[in-house]
Specification:
By secondary structure, this protein is of the alpha+beta class. It contains ten helices and 27 strands. The protein binds alpha-D-glucopyranose.
Length: 605
């Protein structure tokens, strides 16, 4: 494994690593003595110290909280296969055969300065790159293995080059590191299909030593801002000494940030949560209910994180911009992924989308970076809110027919309202507890036009509850639903000329849910308004308070874009709070209906 005779510089590096470890240890002892900290030594390791929620932790996290938008880069020898980063496992490529990719890796067009330039153009505020993915190949110069970019044809420290380019541009950089390692002889378990690799003689503790040495090496050598772990799920925290590793990293670099996956996402241990390819309906909450720091990692394409030569499906630029807004309005970050090609260039589909986001951020970045989540529980139009000091930013994604929007229950006195992009002043008036803002006839930006509302004092809004209108009819528009989802979210909201619908509904786990309140009970007719996707019938059901109340079948709407209302049955409901969810039960032709709203209409006896 460690063939140090082939690379004498590796031996040298190892010596340096050992030496610097001693120095670090000494420095650490000095710091401890100076700070008068008491850390109980237990044999072989230091006592665990989880990230505590102190002022110090809050300050440490602030830059990441403010950054809002990061770039994730999945790049390694798998990129040559062009079937995403799991290629070796998905295609069951024996280790000996995969070796040729490790040896031949030769990204001659790799220009890290260009990457950083692109990131800056996109408006990205930090970069995370795969230092080592599940396949075990390291894109940095590691003293502890030859399975690295120094041992490949390129013979360059690819990671080091990017670090340098980032430093020049003041771009914080962090490293993805996979705990799972399909190459190291001591990592267990083997892949299920790997009949040619016996586990005999493998010693997981030896692997742990290797992993810790590499992590220490990465931190000492490159001083990353973040360590972003993954591939933890095959083991429990105790198996790989997660707490010990966290402790080691925080001692080596006290301001380092560590994601939750080092700790198998156990609450309270990582610095931030990492929902993958979905936006949590209400943001990620801590155990006490307060908002935690979280970052949605998301791909632009749908099949994989590493380069996929055969990919045909991409989220659009506008969709990604709206995702960023949605995430910011809930207090999170978007970590958007690219998988560069094997030669080191980034495919045009990614570049184009990054530039589209950058162009929008150039005009509207003020409404994203450094903002706080929305003060409104719900907005009665297709839009989202972010907040900075005494300014509210309303990101309007559809343009209401009546050219006005209502901010429900805004408690503050308003000083002015204007469009962010051109500072054009907007008229407004108070109507009861609500603020009504008049809009120009056309949006400035179809994707999202930002309206600034400057208020007196700290922005505050009354709690909001969806209730029937004066006629007793309750409307549940899709933009007021929480879209519940899990990894692999496909459905999203989109504006179709005059209305907003949930579209691209091809994952059964995505569904909208509304909470509403009835002042009095009664019998209601249940209706749903949707447009139907050609090509087959999808089935659905509606649940109220977790009980299925109706089921239905799509297929009668006259247009794919223009919704029609369908009566689905009657239900009896008591006064009080209820939740209603609309779930797809089967999807025809890879696309269910487009849902506009659900309506509960009282039936008079
Ligand atoms: C998953 C995948 C991995 C990818 C990661 C990004 O864990 O296994 O390939 O790197 O998601 O979050």
């Amino acid at each position: 494994m460690k063939n140090n005779t082939r690379w004498p510089e590796k031996r040298e590096a190892k010596k340096i690593a050992k030496k610097s470890f001693r120095e670090i240890l000494l420095a650490y002892c000095r710091i401890l003595a100076a700070l008068g900290l008491f850390i109980v030594m237990v044999p072989g390791q230091l006592q665990a110290r989880p990230a505590k929620d102190t002022q110090e932790t809050a300050d440490r996290l602030q830059w990441l909280r403010d950054a809002k938008f990061g770039l994730l880069i999945h790049w390694g020898v798998y990129s040559q296969i062009g079937r995403e980063e799991w290629a070796r496992d998905l295609l069951q490529i024996p280790l000996a055969e995969y070796q040729k990719y490790a040896e031949n890796f030769n990204p001659v067009n790799y220009n890290p300065t260009e990457w950083v330039k692109l990131a800056k153009e996109a408006g990205v505020k930090y970069i995370i790159i795969t230092s080592k993915h599940h396949d075990g190949f390291c894109i940095f110069d590691s003293a502890f293995t030859d399975y690295d970019s120094m041992g490949a044809r390129i013979k360059k420290d690819l990671l080091g080059m990017l670090v340098e380019a980032c430093r020049k541009e003041n771009m914080p950089i962090g490293f993805y590191y996979s705990i799972m390692d399909w190459h190291h002889p001591d990592y267990l378990p083997r892949r299920g299909w790997e009949k040619d690799r016996s586990a005999k003689g493998a010693d997981f503790n030896r692997y742990l030593k290797y992993m810790k040495s590499q992590l220490q090496e990465l931190v000492q050598k490159y001083q990353p801002a973040i360590l972003w772990f993954d591939g933890e799920w095959e083991h429990k925290n105790e198996d790989y000494d997660a707490l010990g590793i966290g402790q080691m990293l925080r001692q080596l670099k006290p301001d380092i940030l560590i994601n939750d996956r080092l700790f198998n996402r156990a609450p309270g241990l990582g610095d931030f949560g990492t929902p993958e390819n979905y936006v949590p309906a209400t943001g990620l909450r801590k155990q006490d209910g307060s908002l935690g720091l979280w970052e949605v990692c998301m791909t632009m394409n749908f099949n994989g994180w590493g380069y996929n030569h055969y990919e045909t499906e991409f989220r659009s630029g506008p969709q990604l911009i709206r995702q960023l807004i949605e995430i910011a309005s809930k207090g999170g970050n978007l970590l958007l992924n690219v998988g560069p090609r094997p030669d080191g260039t980034i495919q045009p589909e990614f570049v184009e989308r990054l530039r589209q986001i950058g162009a929008w951020l150039k005009v509207n970045g003020e409404a994203i970076y450094g903002t706080e989540p929305s003060i409104f529980e719900k907005l009665p139009f297709f839009g989202r809110c972010t907040v900075k000091g005494q300014r509210l930013f309303i990101h309007l994604m559809g343009w209401p027919q009546d050219k006005k929007i209502v901010l429900p229950g805004l408690k503050n006195k308003v000083e002015k309202a204007y469009l962010l992009a051109n500072k054009e002043k907007l008229g407004y008036s108070k109507k009861g507890k609500d603020l009504v803002i008049k809009l120009p006839t056309e949006p400035l930006d179809q994707t999202a036009t930002v309206i600034v509302v400057e208020v007196e004092g700290e922005p505050q809004a009354e709690p909001y509850q969806l209730k029937p209108g004066s006629t007793g009819t309750l409307e549940l528009p899709i933009y007021m639903a929480e879209i519940k989802s899990q990894m692999g979210q496909r459905a999203y909201l989109d504006y179709f000329y005059r209305t907003t619908m949930l579209t691209n509904w091809q994952n059964i786990n995505d569904y909208p849910e509304w909470e509403f309140e009835l002042d009095k009970g009664g019998t209601f007719e249940l209706l749903a308004s949707y447009a139907y996707q050609w090509g087959g019938k999808s089935t659905f059901k509606m649940e109220i308070d977790q009980q299925t109340v109706v089921s239905g079948e799509s297929g009668t709407s006259p247009s794919v874009y223009f919704p029609a209302t369908h009566s689905l049955g009657q239900i009896k409901l008591e006064a009080g709070k209820h939740t209603l969810s609309f779930r797809i039960t089967s999807i025809a032709n890879n696309n269910a209906l487009k849902l506009e709203k659900v309506i509960l209409k009282p039936i008079r006896p």
